[in-house]
Amino acid sequence: MRVSVRLRLATMDDADRLLQWRNDPDTRRFSLNAEHVTAQQHIHWLQQSLSDPQRRLYIAEYAGQPVGTARVDSTAECHRISWTVAAECRGKGLAKAMVKLLVSQLTGKIVAEILPGNTASVKVAQHAGLAHHSTHNGIMYYEYQTPV
């Protein structure tokens, strides 16, 4: 079954939803920063993220409903991507669809940092064309270089 998602840029109106997704126990378990985030910390981070020209923060929508988020941090060297899906929407192929769509919109080197044991994210990265490149300090690096 092919799942079709849409990516739209996040706004401050998404703050509560993004905080809920960020503090989900499974999201935190597989996050590079597993700390619980307060509402105040989150608002500050979101304001900075939305005004950072090197960061794009997206909300993934399926059937008109927000189902997850994806982020791209771009430098001259690469695009670092990350994502999460709302707990109630997991297991439906939405992450694969949104990350594949995100990767299709980028050019150059794309990198995802994934913690060992996060088999769902490994499958999502591989579905989007990323392959395991290396492991450093307990983080697996999945990469893809778009054709020139």
TrEMBL record:
It comes from Rheinheimera lutimaris. PROSITE patterns: GNAT (PS51186). Residues 5-148 form the N-acetyltransferase domain. GO terms for molecular function: acyltransferase activity, transferring groups other than amino-acyl groups. Signal peptide: none annotated. Keywords: Transferase. SUPFAM superfamilies: Acyl-CoA N-acyltransferases (Nat). Gene3D superfamilies: 3.40.630.30. It holds the Pfam family Acetyltransf_3. It comes from the Bacteria. This is GNAT family N-acetyltransferase.
